[in-house]
Amino acid sequence: SPLEQQLKDLASFQVIAHRGASGHAPESTMAAYELAHEWNVDYLELDAQITADGEVVVFHDDAIDRTSDGEGAINDYTLEELKALDTGTWFNEENPDSADTAFEGAQMLTLEEVFERFGHDARYYIETKSPQLNPGLEEALVETLEEYDMVKEGRVLVQSFGQDSLLKVHELNADVPLIQLVWYYPSEEDNSRLVEWTGVTPGPEEITDEDFQAIADYAVGIGTNFIYEGEEVIDADFIRQANENGLPVHVYTVNETEEMERLMEIGVNGMFTNYPDRLLELVE
Ligand code: G3P
Ligand code: CA
């Protein structure tokens, strides 16, 4: 089945366009997704949030200030209000070298608009963002995934830092393949706090086969950072042990070619990048 094929494909290296080709075009806009899709990435990565009137939109930050001309919490606004914002012009101001007048006035996307545009011709790596700030997101997301046959057709992974959010998705539809996101620090002490925060795994120094198996009970892979304040937080042993427990490891967010090369050497199974063009060049 297409879903089985998708899971099989996770055994090979995956190029994941982080918020679209967001190094080249404003993140989470159609321009960024169009570009990544043209380049034939394995996944379009997007962050899902819920509007005040219950619509699922594609947007990363909890607040709209950084990447739009509005201000305040995204969840306080209706879709109509969010649609009136310009989510492209900030990029031109911040990135004069990549600026394009076509980005001006870019509208925030709904998840449905992304699905309408690319349909089953793309795969989507969807994050339930800030689950505590987005009540009802899991229900609305799963409903949309089902409406567009995204799960059956092997088109979607759902990722989250919140284990609860992932488990909620599974209660709604047990077939949705899940990715547990983690965030590691270089010190064991800091990592011990993660258990409290995410409900998942101790840090890479202490993680056991049982910990990996506890993730493998509900998830098909792990997404992790690789560096924190210049210090690497995962190594080849971590990847090997995760893989031995059936979990591919996808690393975020890797933008420099040298870092991509080093991470490929230690065996990572995929990367989230704002520059999928750079990564595709290495993979091909
Ligand atoms: O989803 C993987 C990575 O995107 C997590 O970090 O903050 O970019 O959503 P963030
Ligand atoms: Ca994300």
TrEMBL record:
Q: Which domain of life is it from?
A: Bacteria
Q: Which residue intervals define the domain GP-PDE in the entry?
A: 13-283
Query: Which Gene3D superfamilies did the record assign?
Result: Phosphatidylinositol (PI) phosphodiesterase
What keywords were assigned to this record?
Signal
Named from the GO MF annotations, one term is: phosphoric diester hydrolase activity
A Gene Ontology biological process noted in the UniProt record is: lipid metabolic process
InterPro entries membership: GP_PDE_dom, PLC-like_Pdiesterase_TIM-brl
Protein name, UniProt field:
Glycerophosphodiester phosphodiesterase
